[in-house]
Each structure stands twice: as structure tokens, then as C-alpha cells.
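COMPLEX REQUEST
Ligand: adenosine-5'-diphosphate
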Amino acid sequence: MTIELTKGDITEMCVDVIVNAANSSLLGGGGVDGAIHRKGGKAILEECTAIRNRQGGCPTGEAVYTTAGNLPARYVIHTVGPVWNNGKSNEAALLASCYRNSLRIADSLGAKTVAFPNISTGIYGYPKQEAAQVAVQTVRDYQNTDTAVEKVFFVCLDEENYRIYDQLLNRTK
Ligand code: ADP
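STATUS: Structure written out below.
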């Protein structure tokens, strides 16, 4: 499993799975969530609503999957990142769970390629450097498991996140 860095809009990624930084209602919101629902069409929200009716939303750190609707990806995995609370609410462990649980679901779907946004670093206010360290470490740990995922993309919309990931990924192997 290799790791790649991309700058841009995750909704345009031609991969098996794109991950959404959702909220626990699963009913859509702003940021990357808004972009995915807007471009993916109503099939995504319909499946999210069905999951919500079945299990009452998605807890922080966990993930569910739906179709990707009109997007080029095959599936969307919706994971709920932690809201930053000055590091006092187990945020790092919860953020790591988002990446790990999303990769496990991707594996169960037979996905070979998975694209992640920078979960929690927008509206949820997680400091970008700290969030990137958790993201990179968790994905690297997953490389050592028995996975069939071949490529993970970190997709950074903003330049600041891109620079942070570029440093982290290229500093050590
Ligand atoms: P959260 O609520 O988890 O913080 P946001 O969607 O507000 O989620 O932000 C998470 C990250 O996703 C931010 O770094 C933001 O810049 C980025 N982002 C927003 N829209 C897109 C997009 N279309 N593609 C990729 N990343 C995006």
C-alpha cells in the first residue's frame, strides 16, 4: 500500500472510495460534506437517511458507507471526525479511529484506491499540523496490516494542509 499526496477537490477523484468528513447526523453539512452531497446527488442522502433511520446516525470516530451517486468514485465512506476541544476530549484517538475504520470498511468493499480529505481541520477546528500527524501515522500503521488497499491519497484543498503533508510524507519514509 502506497501513500500519495494530491492538491484539489476530492469530489473529482477517480478512486474506489472517497471519504467524507461527515457529521453524526449524516444529513449533510458544509465543507467537504456539502460538496460531496451537492455533486453526488440525492442517492447519497437517501442512503444516509436509511442508515440514520436504522442506527440513529454515526458516532464520532466511526464510519458508514454509501454509493457515490454521480461522483466518479464508487463509494463514499462517511466518517465523523472529532470537534477540537483543546485536546481535552480524546480527539487524537477519535481522529485515528476515523482513518482506521474508514480503511477497514474500504477493505471490506474490496477497494484498491481510497482518498481522504483532511478530516476535522475545517469547521471542526482541529489544528492542521496535529491532525496531519495523526492521519499519516494511522495510515502508515495500516500499511503494516493485511490489507488489499493499494493506494491511499491525502487530498488537500488548501495550500497550508498540502505543505504540512508534503513535509510529513517526505521527511521520513
Ligand atoms: P470538518 O467538519 O471535519 O472540519 P470540513 O469539511 O469543514 O470538515 O473540513 C475538512 C477539510 O476538508 C478542510 O481541510 C477543508 O479545507 C477540506 N475540504 C473542503 N471541501 C473540500 C473538497 N471539495 N475537497 C477536498 N477537501 C475539501
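REMARKS: Residues 81 and 120 are 5 Å apart (CA to CA). The first helix runs from residue 31 to 40.
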